[in-house]
Task: inverse folding
């Protein structure tokens, strides 16, 4: 199993959720976060004053995904989150040693 973490633009969340559901991903955790990458933030004008926004709003999606679904899930995220513009986000994939469902005690892919 793998822990897939995707940082995406907030308005793409529904598209990504639907795409992941279609490939069989059953659950995920979503967090509103702020950050920047190569785009280094941007400048905004507010009441006549210009100021720099260093951290841009993003959404972090975390999902425990079985190895059999991994490639499909990555492709689903990539296609559904893509706008073709700077700041579309990143996907991080990390090994997941164990998962335990608290209610039943199930482990591994049964717990997901």
Result:
């Amino acid at each position: 199993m793998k822990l897939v973490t995707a940082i995406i633009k907030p308005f793409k969340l529904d598209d990504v959720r639907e795409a992941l559901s279609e490939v069989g991903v059953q659950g995920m955790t979503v967090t509103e976060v702020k950050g920047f990458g190569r785009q280094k933030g941007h400048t905004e004008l507010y009441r006549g004053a210009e100021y720099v926004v260093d951290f841009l709003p993003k959404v972090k999606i975390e999902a425990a995904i079985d190895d059999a679904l991994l490639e499909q899930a990555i492709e689903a995220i990539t296609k559904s989150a893509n706008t073709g513009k700077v700041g579309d986000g990143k996907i991080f994939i990390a090994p997941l040693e164990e998962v335990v469902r608290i209610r039943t005690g199930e482990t591994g892919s049964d717990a997901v």
Q: What stands out?
A: The CA atoms of residues 64 and 112 lie 7 Å apart. The beta strands are 2-8, 29-35, 42-46, 49-53, 56-65, 89-95. The first helix runs from residue 13 to 23. DSSP finds two helices and six strands in the chain.
